[in-house]
Amino acid sequence: MHPDIIKYNNSLAGAEQEICDRLARDIDENLPEAENKIWHTHPVWFLEGNPVVGYSKLKGCVRLLFWSGQSFEEKELKDEGSFKAAEARYIAADQIDVQNLRRWLAKARDIQWDYKNIVRRKGQLERLK
Hints:
It is built from three helices and six strands; from the N terminus they run H-H-E-E-E-E-E-E-H.
């Protein structure tokens, strides 16, 4: 795991740090081929330069975001933004359903929209996989 992600997690307190540590560990275990770093101030994992999953501390919770998550067809993930992203929010680490998370991470590998080139395509997304 990138040292900056460890630093990000360590900057949090209590339940938020526990949630982020668990998410980071599970994401790393299930997407070992993914590059990870702090991107736009938050931990993000990339496959072939394309962002697929990340998390961030929000007021009162931690948000887990899948850039292509709306295409996963998972009722537990809620639509986020005007593109294809979907999210889950946690206030305690024991809310993280490991089976769901592993399934979502497998889908993140297999179902991707091309966010890497969204600016070049003037806001148009194309399906990669």
